[in-house]
């Protein structure tokens, strides 16, 4: 999504000509990448083997799943950097105040997207960093502690179920917050429009009364 919005910022004047195709391509790449990496991590896995807690990893796939989790941490960090860069350049473009309707729409759309994905990305990055760091540290002591202690520690720091539970709630709050901001902005615009009309008609009435007074 960050890449798609960066392209929309770069080609904002003509984005409507290829935006739909870019969205389809981005979604397809995301789905294919998810299937490929998951298949790689769990390929030839023996699901009859015991798994720690409710993790998808077994003895066979633990190493590949760990690599995948650390890779996701890297992707999350890069995404945060990308969001920051996108925000900076989008803010620079907004301050120029020289753009057409299509460009204005894309710049405002970037603000909405950043407002949506930034909290979710920060939350996801924190969860995966905690999980990755704790998994790495616990693995160092795997040979020096009992199996019961190892699984207890693993379960204590296994934050993925909490992430799965909290993420939809966070998305719901972000959507509600965005809707409230949009409604507030519409109310301000309506008030400004009403104030403008009042000033216009008041000025017109003063001019009319002034002309009538001069005639008398």
Automatic annotation (TrEMBL):
Family annotation (InterPro entries): 7TM_GPCR_serpentine_rcpt_Srab, Nematode_rcpt-like_serp_alpha
Keyword Membrane: yes
Signal peptide: none
A Pfam cross-reference name: 7TM_GPCR_Srab
A single cellular component GO annotation: membrane
Molecular-function GO terms, alphabetical: olfactory receptor activity
The keyword Transmembrane helix is assigned to this record: yes
Record keywords, A-Z: Membrane, Transmembrane, Transmembrane helix
UniProt subcellular location: Membrane
Annotated TM spans: 20-42, 62-89, 110-133, 153-175
Membrane topology reported for the UniProt record: Multi-pass membrane protein
Family: Belongs to the nematode receptor-like protein sra family.
Protein name: G-protein coupled receptors family 1 profile domain-containing protein
UniProt source species: Ancylostoma ceylanicum
